[in-house]
Design a protein that fits this description.
five-stranded mixed sheet, Pnp Oxidase, Chain A, UbiD-like_N, seven-stranded antiparallel sheet, 27% helix, alpha+beta, EC 4.1.1.98, UbiD C-terminal domain-like, 2 domains
Length: 489
């Protein structure tokens, strides 16, 4: 099911009992954040929250939008996130050995058909331009932008689709970058060094760079801005693939860019690459710590357009779990087939919320030769933004990666620290505060697989304790006879 806009998604959530409307007056300064933080830490992620009476603004605020497994699946049109990975796996199927010309042609036509059917299309009129504000009418303070933590440098726009274009190739990028509101017409633009927004900024050096920011719209497009896509896959085509139909775009009023037609708000403007960078922050980030003040480009707003019934969407980040847990889990499941394309021995992986995604990755493999786990760790460090992973742990194929107790037991039991813990140096996330040098430091790999003699373990490896199957079956069959309820087993 493809949602046309955020309003349709809200209605679907409310119908299922997954939305709570809050009619009491609330402040965008810390209060909405505190309410959202408590709700997002409820079992299962709590409901989406629609604040209908926000002090200082006529627009309602939506938070925790996709902050549960049920809502992220609904947003992406699936019952389980692995369904999207399976669709991608089917598209990536290459003709096997001995495959003829027609096999290759058939697969090529299938990919071409998907590309054509999911490519965005331009429309002449759009809900996001029902109200157009330019010149002296531009006032970011009319938006209920949240200040989420006490030491934040100010209010921050968070759930963004920031749209830029490569001046050389013309390729479009959409990224989810935070924006500190400085005044009525300017914000910071928090482009990390490793992200495509920063790459476009570098390519525009010496000129004004048109930038548009979409807030709201259909949930698949919102999510696509957070997805670490390879450069050859445009975010809007990916959103169309997720939705099963193209994303509609409309031309901006004051800059040469196209934006999602069904967004709630559009901020049009530019970043002057010749302008000095400006201090931005602090900001209470998804790591659970404040990221410090640093210098970033300034975004100048030339127009604000919006729907008449616009809803302002915001995401809260801080100590996990928060809504970004579910956005991250979507990325984890969707991109497993792409990871396996390069590392086919990987059976599955898990990025625990407590590891804030780039701090810890658990991987299970089908081990085939000595040193296989080390090969996988180094291979993952060479894949896109996986390069930022600070700790990668590899276990054997029979281990349940979702059972953290089981994983911890295997890891602590199976390693000899001097032999099985190894280090490398390389790029780290902008937000990592523990490395002595910004964006660069050490990373750790842990080989927690069963060791072979060739890996420096001459002693016999012990068998794991396991009850015989016939006894397990007998006890299961007689469980009620022992006086237990079936739920106890």
């Amino acid at each position: 099911m493809a949602f046309r806009d955020l309003h349709e998604f809200i209605a679907a959530c409310e119908k299922r009992g997954w939305l709570k409307r809050i009619k009491a007056p609330v402040s965008p300064y810390l209060e909405i954040a505190e309410i959202t933080d408590r709700v997002s830490k409820m079992p299962g992620g709590g409901p989406a929250l629609l604040f209908e009476n926000v002090e200082g603004s006529r627009f309602p605020v939506l938070t925790n939008t996709m902050g549960s497994m049920e809502r992220i699946c609904l947003a992406l049109g699936v019952n389980h996130l692995d369904e999207i990975g399976e669709r991608i796996r089917e598209l990536m199927k290459l003709p096997g050995p001995g495959g003829g010309l027609f096999d290759k042609l058939g697969q090529g036509l299938k990919l071409l058909d998907v590309a054509k059917s999911t490519a965005p299309r331009i429309v002449s009129r759009a809900p996001c331009q029902e109200v157009v504000l330019t010149g002296d009418q531009v006032d970011l303070y009319q938006l209920p932008v949240l200040t989420t933590w006490p030491k934040d440098g100010g209010p921050f726009i968070t759930l963004t689709n920031v749209i830029t274009r490569d001046p050389v190739t013309g390729g479009r990028n959409i990224g989810m970058y935070r924006m500190q509101v400085y005044d009525k017409r300017t914000t910071g633009m928090h482009w990390h060094k490793h992200k495509d927004g920063q790459r476009h900024y570098d390519a525009h050096q010496g000129s004004r760079m048109p930038v548009a920011v979409a807030l709201g719209g259909d949930p698949a497009t919102i999510y696509s801005g957070s997805a670490p896509l390879p450069p050859m896959i445009p975010e809007l085509m990916f959103a169309g693939f997720l939705r099963g139909e193209p994303v509609e775009l409309v031309k901006c009023k004051t800059i040469d860019l196209e934006v999602p037609a069904h967004a709630d708000f559009i901020l049009e403007g530019y970043v002057d690459t010749a302008e000095p960078l400006r201090p931005e922050g602090p900001f209470g980030d998804h790591t659970g710590f404040y990221s410090p003040v640093d210098l970033y480009p300034v975004f100048h707003v030339t127009a604000i357009t919006h729907r008449r019934d616009a809803i302002y969407p915001a995401t809260l980040v801080g100590k996990p779990p928060q809504e970004d847990v579910y956005l991250g889990k979507a990325t984890e499941r969707i991109f497993l087939p792409l990871l396996q394309l390069f590392l086919p021995e990987v059976i599955d992986y898990n990025m625990p919320p407590e590891g804030t995604f780039h701090n810890c990755v658990l991987v299970k493999i089908k081990k085939r030769y000595p040193g296989h786990a080390r090969k996988v760790v180094h291979g993952m460090w060479g894949l896109g933004l996986m390069m930022l992973s600070k700790c990668i742990v590899v276990v054997d194929e029979h281990i349940d990666l979702n059972n953290y107790s089981e994983v911890f037991w295997y890891v602590t039991s199976n390693i000899d620290p001097r032999r099985d813990v190894f280090f490398a140096e390389g790029p780290l996330d902008d937000l990592d505060h523990a490395s002595p040098v910004w964006r660069f430091g050490s990373k750790m790999g842990i080989d927690a697989t069963r060791k072979w003699p060739e890996e420096g373990h001459p002693r016999p490896w012990p068998d794991e304790i396991e009850m015989s199957p016939e006894i397990k079956e007998r006890v299961t069959a007689r469980w009620r006879e022992y006086g237990f309820e079936e739920a106890d087993t």
